[in-house]
Design goal:
Elements: H1 2-20, E1 25-26, H2 29-36, E2 49-51, H3 56-69, E3 73-76, E4 95-98, E5 105-109, E6 114-118, H4 123-132, E7 135-136, H5 149-154, H6 162-165, E8 172-178, E9 184-187, E10 213-220, E11 222-223, E12 227-235, H7 241-252, E13 256-263, H8 264-273, E14 287-295, H9 302-315, E15 321-324, H10 328-339, H11 341-348, E16 351-352, E17 355-357, H12 363-377, E18 382-388, E19 393-399, H13 406-410, H14 413-426, H15 442-448, H16 451-464
Parallel strand pairs: 2-4, 3-4
Antiparallel strand pairs: 1-2, 5-6, 6-10, 7-11, 8-9, 8-10, 12-14, 12-15, 13-14, 13-18, 16-19, 17-19, 18-19
Helix pairs in contact: 1-3, 7-9, 8-11, 12-14
The protein binds flavin-adenine dinucleotide, (2R)-2-hydroxypentanedioic acid (2HG) and zinc ion.
Zinc ion binds next to strand 18.
Length: 477
């Protein structure tokens, strides 16, 4: 039996090599390791092989080879996903299809404000291509140096500029996709308006590689902000955050790009584990916001107006203290605090993550209820609350207590996540607002999604992937 499997694998590897060349196929276990390890180190994973096609035709041929042998495929981008969606299961029967060699910028049209890139372009590469043309591609997340645009689109990534520019899905005009059959759908249109039937690209955006493999995308570009102001603001509690955001938007409109929340323990973790991070204000506070506004035109008085707006909020009692970055280095210091929370908490130990959203007006209520509930269930757990408050999206994570082993702590994940997710759902929120479902949150889909919704999703899956070969253990319970 084992020998037969070995023979099949060797034959599969040869068939793949004929398409992508020898260097495009990895079969040695040791060389496959980086493709098998999930970001959080939570999952067992193995694969028959890793295949790295370099063109859309090669992706299509690889998919046809797998389809003809009923071999499941896990598409992989930068492997930065936090829900185990980019790694195969532990069976050793799946193939990892890495998009990393499909990393060309195909075209840019600055006058049309559009950019066409391949799925394996790292997000910073996409941002830089826009920047070189004097424009902005606004998707921005702490993993941008390694995540790929194909992964971003497949997870409908959020990040720190959603308030102004929307989620990844809203930045897409067209897609090129390899279907489960191995056919290529060329929907790479760069049109702002196109109502010719169903908007098929939506089938592949945010569906985590379960319905097709994105190989290229036509993206929207924006004018680059000419002036930017960044402030680190201490607030008395989370309850004032909605009022303060309303105040800022009233004064600056859509210029408000970033509205990120961090509680004190996040900063303490960053100070402990990230070199160069330091206290941002003269005193220490419990609640912080990182606020950024940006104006495309030459709005020369923006800084002065921003200071005035903050002073007004101070008088209303919504702000305790604030510092507006005077230099680029200071701006980077503020961002370093926010962008290193995930890394710092990872170094600190195991983490049970919740990536939830509620209406902006329910954020404070959620934090209060969630904090109280977790303090009851695990009094020594370290609550790490931060996130994209302007979008109502919080990362409500629990780090392992000092007096508990990681394994015992993680063993309580289901119980702890149920406590948090029940509160979110009670507030009409979402138990999964940003990172996707992957392999880790499938049980929550079964618990919280209606059977009508789940069956509609299964219908789509059966239609587009009748053999169930694309990410079979992902998303749907
Ligand atoms: P991968 O992790 O490789 O894959 C993610 C999923 O997409 C998998 O299901 C995979 O099968 C599928 N997939 C990948 N490429 C393709 C493709 N071309 N076609 C079809 N399916 C594909 N996420 C946010 O949304 N906002 C954040 O602010 C954020 N911050 C992060 C910060 C850190 C430090 C880290 C480690 C992660 C963060 N993430 C964040 C999570 C992660 O970076 C995003 O989900 C990102 O969009 C994943 O991109 P990737 O290329 O790494 O995809
Ligand atoms: C962020 O907002 C990411 O920084 C990561 O979405 C969140 O680590 C997390 O839970
Ligand atoms: Zn986030």
């Amino acid at each position: 039996m084992a020998a037969a499997f070995e023979t099949q694998n060797a034959e599969l590897a040869l068939a793949m090599e004929a398409v992508v060349g020898r260097s495009g196929v990895i079969t040695e276990r040791a060389d496959m390791v980086p493709y098998l390890e999930d970001q959080r180190g939570l999952l067992e994973s193995d694969a028959r092989l890793v295949v790295r096609p370099a063109t859309v035709e090669e992706v299509a041929e690889v998919v046809r080879i797998c389809a003809s042998r009923d071999v499941p495929i896990v598409p992989q981008g930068g492997n930065t996903g936090l829900v185990g969606g980019s790694v195969p299961d532990g069976s050793g029967e799946q193939v990892v299809l890495s998009l990393s060699r499909m990393n060309r910028v195909r075209s840019i049209d600055p006058l049309n404000f559009t950019l066409v890139v391949e799925a394996g372009c790292v997000l910073t590469q996409v941002q830089n291509a826009a920047d070189e043309a004097g424009l902005l591609f606004p998707l921005s997340l702490a993993s941008e140096g390694s995540c790929q645009i194909g992964g971003n689109l497949s997870t409908n990534a959020g990040g720190t500029a959603v308030l102004r520019y929307g989620n990844a899905r809203e930045l897409v005009l067209g897609l090129e996709v390899v279907l489960a059959s191995g056919e290529i759908w060329n929907g790479l249109r760069t049109l702002r308006k196109d109502n010719t039937g169903y908007d098929l690209k939506q089938l592949f955006l945010g569906t985590e590689g379960t319905l097709g493999i994105i190989t290229a995308a036509a993206l929207k570009l924006f004018p680059k902000p000419k002036e930017q102001c960044t402030a680190l603001v201490a607030i008395p509690n989370a309850a004032v955050a909605a009022d303060l955001l309303g105040w800022l938007r009233d004064a600056h409109g859509d210029a408000v790009t970033t509205y990120e929340y961090m509680q004190r323990p996040c900063l303490d973790m960053v100070f402990t584990h990230i070199p160069g991070a330091r206290e941002p204000l003269d005193s220490a506070y419990e609640h912080y916001l990182l606020v950024e506004i940006g104006a495309p035109g030459a709005a020369s008085d923006m800084g002065a107006r921003f200071e005035e707006t903050l002073a007004g909020a101070f008088e209303k009692g919504w702000i305790l203290d604030a510092s507006v970055a005077a230099t680029e280095a200071q701006r980077e210091d503020f961002w370093r605090l926010r962008e290193n929370i995930t890394e710092a908490t990872k170094i600190a130990g195991a983490s049970i993550k919740h990536d939830v959203s509620v209406a902006l007006t329910d954020v404070a209520r959620f934090i209060e209820r969630g904090s109280e509930a977790l303090a009851q269930v695990m009094p020594n757990g370290k609550l790490i609350v931060f996130g994209h408050l302007g979008d109502g999206n919080l990362h409500f994570n629990l780090n392992q207590p000092d007096d508990m082993e990681a394994k015992a702590f993680l063993g309580r994940s289901v119980e702890i996540s149920k406590v948090v997710h029940d509160i979110v759902v009670d507030l009409n929120g979402s138990f999964s607002a940003e990172h996707g479902i992957g392999r880790i949150k499938r049980k929550d889909m079964a618990a919280y999604k209606s059977s009508v919704e789940l069956e509609l999703m299964r219908t789509l899956k059966r239609t587009l992937d009748p053999k169930g070969l694309l990410n079979p253990e992902h998303v749907l319970p």
